[in-house]
Predict the structure of Heparan-alpha-glucosaminide N-acetyltransferase domain-containing protein.
Amino acid sequence: MSASLNQRLQAIDALRGLVILIMMVDHVRETFYLHHQVPDPMLIAETEEPLFMSRILAHLCAPVFVILTGLSAYLYQAKHNSIRMTREFLIKRGLFLIFLELIIINFAWTGKFPPDVIYLQVIWAIGISMLALAVLIGLPQKLLWCISLMIIFGHNLLDQISFENIPVLHNLWLILHERGWIELGNSVRLRTSYPVLPWIGVITLGYCISHLVFVPSNDAAKRNRILLGFGLTGIALFFIFRIINLYGDQAWQVMPSFTQTLMSFMNLTKYPPSLLFILWNAGMGLILLVLLQKVETQKWVKPLIVFGSVPMFFYIVHLYLLKALYLIAVQFFGTTHGPYFGVDQVSSLWLISILLSILLYPLMLKFSKFKHQNKHIRILKYL
């Protein structure tokens, strides 16, 4: 792989690191702010502005993770010059992520083993999307573009479809497109928090875009222009569809104040991700990738690159750390908000997140160096 593409990998890691840290703020919210739970989409009149803005910022995370996964799949294919090897890698990593979600990550959230509830969340969705991409990558590029865009732009047409009277199809539909509960006998329930169909469209989009961006004849400036073009197109389409207010998400409303109206305008559906959710967040992600490429050699970007180079290790460690901190807080302070221990201000969530970032950085740096020095240990490339 050329030196310029290796430089691009630095920006990819930096972007992944940035959204990982933003994600941690949201997970701190889900740990220490449970007394102010927010539905999807949020209720504007009942949601304080700092909480709304923190949640909207966190919306960036999943689309960036997924589109970067598609982009990285193409870079893996370009490096090894083999669709077969890429397909094998996607299958192995996809199955590994599903295993982590079902066993390791679910326990971090629930603290129960064996579990009575299994949450199928973002890592599950990425794993399933990787398996789907493994099936799709051998298809002609034009067909891949059609599949990706049809899913992204068309899946909201499926919102009114239901198979409640056909159990087998209903359970499949809950996995693909509708958030809900799947009963496994009388002992275990599955919560399909991240229906996977739209994410398959997003990962395929990242893979398709990479074919246009990372052509050997493209220099860094041309790659940036293409990425920026896609990002700005996503943002422009978001505003067009949102202003029309007829398709792509729930309609926004004029509220009593300008701030609330703006909140209504940006109040997007994540479960499953609406067309407008994908356009805004994937578009912003591609723009951030271009901006980070321009500053990736600056010292302040290094911590982002370190965090982004060990994404799964960080994901697991920070979840278990948050679980431990919550149990310690309950032990020392008891429950402070009904059945929960929690903080009183959204600013406290950010403060906790900053402190945890500083605390975890040395461990992530050490593991990143270990991972780089031990590439022969296969499992490390999945972390």
